[in-house]
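User: Last request for today: this protein with manganese (II) ion, please.
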Amino acid sequence: MTALTLSTAAAAGLRADAIVVGVAKGTPSKSQGLVVAPGAEAVDKAYDGRLAAVLETLGAVGAEGEVTKLPSPAGFKTPVVLAVGLGALPESNEGFGTETLRRAAGCASRAMAGAKKAAFALPVDGADALAAIAEGTVLGAYVFDAYKVSGPGGAATARKNGKNGKNAKPPLAEATLLGGKPRDKAHKAALERAAAVCEEINRARDLVNTPPNDLTPATFAHLASTAAKEHGVKVQVLDEKELTKGGYGGILGVGAGSTAPPRLVRLVYKHPKAKQSLAFIGKGITYDSGGISLKPPGHNETMKCDMGGAAAVLSTVLAVARLGLAVEVTGWLALAENMPSGSALRPGDVLRMYSGTTVEVLNTDAEGRLVLADAISRASEDKPDAIVDVATLTGAMILALGSRTFGIMANDDAFRSTLHEISEEAGEPSWPMPLPEYLLKGMDTPTADMANMGERMGGGLVAGLFLREFVGEDITWAHLDIAGPAYNEGSAFGYTPKGGTGSGVRTLVRLAERAAAGELA
Ligand code: BES
Ligand code: MN
Ligand code: ZN
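Assistant: Here's the final one, the structure of the complex with manganese (II) ion:
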């Protein structure tokens, strides 16, 4: 993980592989071209104030995501200046937005893969900007190379080419941020928070990226237990025998087709001064083949991502513990592998859920709601102030909102608004979605209390309505459908890598911070 430090050293004397500066697009109406952002004054001065002109000659325009490298001016100890685009210059009094800084830092950090150290001279106008740069740096540096043993041609070719067998560059090892004050309490706290949260986000990414032959419900539960113990979080794992004894029909049903049996993990963090309590529930389908309602080719290659909700919940609980927030947080990981086999759940089977409700399974690919329902019922027994479930639940939500925005559904309008607001503050785009009552009827069946499927139209909302049926009376609940943003099938952008993204962690950590301040909606 990229180590973060603060420095007040003069740019010229810094020892690093590169110094990162920000550049923005000037205001066209003022016929302003490229503008060097605040924070890089000393660097610009060393180029005799011609840094913008030099960069323009190199083709830079200041667009978001743009990275331009050039040799450092004479007298600098860093060999390279890396200019990263910040997009349009903000209106006179506003600073650059935190998400702009987070993304720019992420692009720079990713471009520095393989390097030992980079100094960041981006615009810092307070602790929030510093936190955003720190987050972008750690998140952008992320590399998943656990399975890169050798390049094309095998290990022998790799050795012949002087490589040690690994063909991915390691993440930037160290980042020193300029513009912050090492002795300022708020700055130090911002840096520590960013490091803890982003290390946990990178943990969630690793879990999502780990192939499903290595990440089964049991191995996930084991990794969660080990990490929980390291950070003083209590952990309890229900195995298939205990799930049977407890009557967890949903989780058992979904896991029935796999040789890797299901698990339900309960993680408890409780601060002695906690006033408010939260339950976070994560969908943890370690692989979603669809089951007997098998997904067609083209739809199951990335389905190791279907435990992204559980990974986000684990990471959130660990981050909250590391930050020592004055709150009680219970994390639930509903873990199962959805496979077709002779012992698998069939379309037509009726499950008796943990709550006692009977569910006719009409499509075994609508499995997430089944494991979540049991966890929601069980979590409700503890009577938390609020429950939030996080799940890669429906393809319909991706069709509705695209691949970078998650949908929020809730049984409480204020709570849904709070979540929307804090997710946007955190740089996780989201949008409030309705739970239209008329869609409930579509899940009626003559055979059982309800079916696990309803109308095709509004499929994401149908799934939300299904979950709502399992929330205990008078408990505030929200559902985050992260099917789109949990896994980036496209190229890396900003601080978001290809593959697992750790979607949801920053929003849930903020919610826990609200609860610690006694400000739960
Ligand atoms: N895990 C999928 C949803 C999903 C799709 C996540 C694409 C990420 C990317 C979920 O279990 C599923 O299969 N949902 C079905 C529900 C349908 C059968 C009612 C869907 O969305 O098609
Ligand atoms: Mn499915
Ligand atoms: Zn699924």
